[in-house]
Amino acid sequence: QVQLVESGGGLVQAGGSLRLSCAASGRTFANYPMGWLRQAPGKEREFVAAISRSGDSTNYADSVKGRFTISRDNAKNTVYLQMNSLRPEDTAVYYCAAAVSHWATKSLNDYAYWGQGTQVTVSS
Question: What does the buried/exposed string (b/e) look like for 70-83 if buried means 16 or more CB atoms within 10 Å of the residue's CB?
Answer without folding.
Answer: bebeeeebbbbbeb
